[in-house]
Write a structure and sequence with these properties.
331 residues; five-stranded mixed beta sheet; 14 strands
Length: 331
Amino acid sequence: MRHQGVLYRAERDVQGDVTFGDQSKISVKEKGKIMIQTKTGENRYISDVYYVPALHNNISSLGQLLERGYDIHMKDLALTIKNKNEVIVMVNMSTNRLFTLNIYADPVKCLKSIIKDETWLWHLRFGHLAFRGLNLLWKNKMVKDLPQINHPNQLCEGYMRGKQHRRSFEVGKLRRATELLQLVNTDIAGPFEVVSLKGNRYFITFIDDYSRKIWVYFLKERAEDLEKFKEFKEMMEKQSGYHIKVFRSDRGGEYTSKAFNNFNKQCGIIHQVTAAYTPQQNGIAERKNRTILDMARSMLKSSTYRRLSGQKLWIAQSISSIAARQKASSS
């Protein structure tokens, strides 16, 4: 390529030449990536692109595309390039027997998103919390510098796309705890494709049925649940002065292991497990996990960050909003 401005993560100490059919050579100055925009509006990268200032036109090597696993077909005076049966390029041959690709390349930029409307700004800060919840925080003076929120007439696209769910189960009359730690609900979410910065692929939640407060712990493996439960139990019982009496979970193998059952017996804890394929019986923990994941999805859907970066950061973004969400729901 001949435009240096669109090169991304350029390696400047690259030495080499590009040789043409007449044995003439021109020097390569840099190597990097360029970001292109497809017809669907998606941004993709082309790697190992050479910056050659002496070129008059950008050229692409079909041999390198073949080495990277692309399928190239030439038929009926047209060129088709596929990647895993997905057509990414289809172009007709020009009068001089060349295939001219019109690719839109743009420099990679780090942009600062500016939202002037304070109502929407606070809505985004709190993981797309409902506006009535924001008004509750303002009314009770629970957040410093939070202004009075006026409900806008617009719908939040990130909220709608990130928090839609199946129709709810019919609500029954369930007995609720009457004191702290009388009943603790729990559930594990994961595994997630992209691990967190510390290598965690799961998170486990513990919800006090009486106060509806939530505690979140991160796990590398599901087998760490007993260790986290012990940590939670020790901290809560010493801080509150109460003792865990009933522990409710699904029938996951990590909860019904021999080690977990022995620990509950030693501590005098009754372990309630749900019937198979009835997550509604553990609805409090299931809904809380869904709330956390809904916040993450809404942030990603409304974010301009790249998908991979967003997935790596989603846990930190979601959990940062849980404290505020707890205050709004328990007031």
